[in-house]
Amino acid sequence: MCEERGAVTLLAPLVGGGAALLALGLTPVYIKIARHYGIMAKPPAGGSRVHVKAMPTAGGLAICVAVVVAGITVVLLYPEGRNFIGPMMTIGAGATAMCAVGLLDDLARLPWAGKMAIQVLAAGAVVAGGVHLHVLPLAICLPLSVIWIVGVTNSVNLIDGMDGLAAGISALAAAALAAIAFVHGATNIALLAAVASGASIGFLVYNFYPSSIFMGDAGSLFLGFLLAMLPLAMVTSSARLSILFAAAIALGIPIFDTLSSMVRPTSSGAGFLWGGGGSGGYCYFHFISALVGGVGDHGRGLSGDGDAVPANGLYHLCEGGSA
What we know:
It is a single chain. It is built from twelve helices and two strands. The protein is mainly α and 323 residues long. The chain has one domain. Strands 1-2 form a two-stranded antiparallel ribbon. It is globular, with a radius of gyration of 19 Å.
């Protein structure tokens, strides 16, 4: 076990860094392709505080390709990973299917009900493939696993509204999941999580302020599905429900942001996607953005004037006031 963990300690930065470099190299190539073929996200007809010019979208394809290539590399470089090839293929197939659904939505705007139905079917397929909770009776484990997958997937999807927010949180959450997996001896999952974190970081270079590309649903659904599956695979391998609670903490920002947006009344009358300035993800984004100089075109300030948000105004923003 010590030798195995030692190998993972060396391999995780290698495959994570490789995934980051892949995403870093693929993203500018995809930006040119998106511009050439008109795969652009245009501002709403009525105007928007957070989206003021046409931008290349569906950049999550670069993340998906980077994760798939690096994941295959893990299997090739890490012999013990071949023992986990079945679950890894199941997770990879489900996440790639989510990327395809997201791409279709980016291109043609799928009906909400249809997109949700596909997510449930994909979650059900991977659960039927054996990646699910095993610490409770199956009658409880199976539906609970599907609810977890769909819920986390949509949590990441819903926070993808500002420069670098979804990619940054996904990178941090995946890194935390890698550490959790390593501590619990799920070394294969640790490597896959490191790959997801690295790919998110590579894409973040072009997605952070000032953003050059949006990840779109192709990226947010892919990352959300992957982040949901990683702790389930850990629970499957070790049968410890405590892992799921630790994962919920690691994914706390998107989960809390989604739940609070659903239940919190808004003073501005905005829809639940933009439930005012008090959401956890919104405050997190402004905190990070303040550190690097302000909010960009994809994340205009809450005041609506497009000015950068000063660090000393963050408390008021999180409380729903104005800076």
